[in-house]
Amino acid sequence: MIFGQWSYEGTPLSFQIKEGQGAFQEIAAGTPDFDQVLKEDALADAAGMPPRFAKDIPLALNPGNAGSWLLTESGWGVWRLAIRTEGALATSLFFKNFELPKDSKLFIYSEDRQQILGAYTDLNNRPDKRFATELINGDQCIVELNIPHQDIPVIPFEISEIAYAYRFAGEEDKGLQGSDFCEVNVNCSPEGDAWQNAKRGVVRIQVKVNSSSYWCTGTLLNNVKFDKIPYILTADHCAYQLGGYASEDDLSKWLFYFNYEGADCESSGPAPGSFSLLGSTKMAQGGNRGSTGSDFYLVRLFSDIPPGQNVYFNGWSALGVSQQNGVTVHHPDGDIKKISTYTTMLETSSWAGNGLDSHWKVIWSETLNGWGVTEGGSSGSPLYDGQGRIIGTLTGGLAACEAQGSLGPDKPDYYGKFSYHWESNGTADTAQLKPWLDPENTGILSLPGVSTSNAQSISITDPRVNIYPNPADEYIMIDFTTFAENDIQVELYNILGELILKRHRIANDQQIKLDIEELAPGSYFVKIDNDQLSLTRKVVIR
């Protein structure tokens, strides 16, 4: 399976030409100082911080000072460089001065050619001229640039660092199913059946802080404008390691892996259909890693979600109401997506003696396929209520697969409350979620999610769907004009995110009428879904 950061179709030119099978330069990048690495990891692990899985090695390599060139008869230059990091489980590259010329293509692939990232093109260029790649399995990666002859004098990038992954990464260590034995794949049935939309908003985050990389979990959030701004919510402590927070430059190199999950309950092969996006900027944070609040960190991705990708902007609730049942979806130790279930009423709690009602105390339940808990790398994962709305983000806890001392599957975890994130960590916009998720100050405290699946997302002015009158008094009409003979589900939610009405449009029906005469005045949301479209629109009942 070939999967990678958002890229474009193509095959390295050296794979296709006879002369491309020749030798090229290999550079040994060395190894980290593992005596120091192990000391630092022992301190961080004891403090319950997200697990570091890679240490960066500085480089200064470019097509002008390293690698080998080949000129083809078809008018192309092929530059290749192999970088070996002896003993690494996997590697990831960081670039600066990244500015690919038009028509050029960049690939990064494993020695056995089983994993290929790219083609990256000039469409991957960014104003900050930074770039980074997903992990390549093994201790050698090959960088290949395909460029027209006339552009060969151009130096389009410098490889500034290589991440040496030494644990929780690569097929030989923490690959698929590398988390602890009790964890439950998100696509196990029945545990994951009701969460197939919500899971598509959960991401594995390759966090970079200074010269190290860590695993955390985050989720893509909807906002009251339904404009699909790519906000990702995770935990504040995910951005903090070994005495400092991620810098602006670090955040520009965070990688967000979407749909990194197994196909079924017993997955052991490559994760199908995953892709990643690079780079983010901090919007807000609060709680000082839980010591003074609810431990949240909100970023906005540099890139919008590419068209046609099967992801989901999760809904949420800031009401602060305890729940009897729900789940978390997470990436323990950077593994494929897992699901843990609770069926015991949540309790309000503090975290680490902060003396605040800032967290939910959660006890996980045993289910048909395991007793899902959380692990390092699960930090920042969303806690869902029974209606699929996010109500918290993971700070930490005592839950573990194996009972040992104070740890065990029946021990509590603690999630910073979404209702506390909302506006209780401080008065500044940069300490709250509310200014970003409700920028027009509508007062909405709960919101359903919205899909950007392979269904086509349409604008509220699209002539194929007409919702009227708005505002409405007695009824709402929904007209469909040019859609094929497919069933369409229509749902009406109130401002609290509660489902009020549900209707199905049967094939060939051109209209659905929602009778609303008995409903209280206020704002509501009409949600329309099928395999051709995904639409959520706010309506007002007078």
Mean pLDDT: 89
**Tally of separate domains:** 3
- CATH top level class name of the largest domain: Mainly Beta
Portion in strands: 35-45%
**Continuous helix count:** 4
What's the N-to-C terminus distance?
Answer: 54 Å
- SSE class: mainly beta
**Which stretches of 5+ consecutive residues score pLDDT under 50?**
454-461
Helix proportion: under 10%
Mass-distribution shape: globular
Rg for CA atoms:
24 Å
- CATH evolutionary superfamily of the largest domain: Trypsin-like serine proteases
Beta-strand segment tally: 40
CATH A-level architecture of the largest domain: Beta Barrel
CATH topology of the largest domain: Thrombin, subunit H
Largest sheet: 13 strands, mixed
Descriptive overview:
This protein is mainly β. The protein folds into three domains: 4-165, no CATH class; 193-435, Thrombin, subunit H, CATH 2.40.10; 455-541, Immunoglobulin-like (Sandwich). 5% of the residues lie in helices and 38% in strands. Strands 1, 3, 6, 9, 10, 12, 13, 14, 15, 18, 19, 20 and 21 form a 13-stranded mixed sheet that branches. Strands 2, 4, 5, 7, 8 and 11 form a six-stranded mixed sheet that branches. Strands 26-27-30-29-28 form a five-stranded antiparallel sheet. The radius of gyration is 24 Å and the shape is globular. The N and C termini lie far apart (54 Å).
